[in-house]
Amino acid sequence: MGERPKHRPRTQAKALYDDRYVYVIFRVEDRYVRAVAQEYHGPVWKDSCVEFFFRPGDDLSLGYFNLEVNCGGTALFHYQKVPRENVRIVDMADMQQIEIAHSMPRIVEPEIIRPTIWTIEYRIPLAVLEKYCKVAQPRRGVIWRANFYKCADETSHPHWLTWSAVDNPTPDFHLPQFFGILEFM
Questions:
Q1: What is the b/e burial string over 127-148, where b = at least 16 CB atoms within 10 angstroms of the residue's CB?
Q2: Rounded Cα–Cα distance for residues 73 and 120 (Å)
Q3: pLDDT at 3
Q4: What share of the chain is helix, strand, coil (3-state, %, to 5)?
Q5: Rounded to whole angstroms, how far apart are CA atoms 78 and 87?
Q6: How far is CA 158 from the centre of its chain?
């Protein structure tokens, strides 16, 4: 999205589900890795960060979640019906139910400039999502709309990468009309 960055870390994402959770794992082959945000709901997108924006169903008019996690495991989690309007910050009690595992230390400063592989994985309780909106229960054939992102706004090599293409000249992940289709199997 935007100009093609010189640094494009290879990023893989996988999503799974069961009756109670949605599981997401990211694996990033990176360089220029940094994490300084320590507060939940802080500016994690400025760090080496992976993001899962999703509508738990296929009707984008009902809003979407954005779960953003820096390489140190610090997260931001919001729900919004219209991009950047009436943003509902996910309550801390709900945040604490999301188990996050990370392979990097919580703080990565100074920036790591050598090739580094890092991972983020978490499980989101469907019961938490249901507090904020109607959720299409994952099962075979159910469709959610989503996008996976990799960014690093304030590292020495900023970049904004997407799974589902976003046709926008400047970086903006809050464009649900470009969310791809996740069909549960």
A1: ebbeebbebeebeeebebbbbb
A2: 7
A3: 73
A4: 10, 45, 45
A5: 7
A6: 17
16-19 long-range CB contacts below 8 Å, 24 or more apart? 17/138, 17/184, 19/126
Query: Cα-Cα-Cα-Cα dihedral of 116, 23, 53, 142, to 10°?
Result: 140
Domain residue ranges of the chain, discontinuous segments joined by +: 10-163
List of residues 6+ apart from 126 with CB closer than 8 A:
19, 20, 21, 22, 56, 135, 137, 138
Which neighbouring-strand residues pair with 67?
Answer: 52, 77
| Inter-residue contact 72 to 39 (CB < 8 Å) | no
Looking up tokens 């599981």, which residue turns up? 23
The one-letter amino acid code at 89 reads I
Residue ranges in the chain whose pLDDT is less than 50: none
Quick check: 142 and 136 in contact, CB under 8 A? yes
Going by C-alpha positions, the residue among 96, 99, 97, 79 that lies closest to residue 88 is 79
Q: Which two tokens stand for residue 81?
A: 């019906």
What confidence tens digit (pLDDT) does each residue in 53-97 have? 999 999 999 999 999 999 999 999 999 999 999 899 999 999 999
Q: Which CATH class is domain 10-163?
A: mainly beta
CB 160 within 8 A of CB 173: yes
pLDDT at position 4? 80
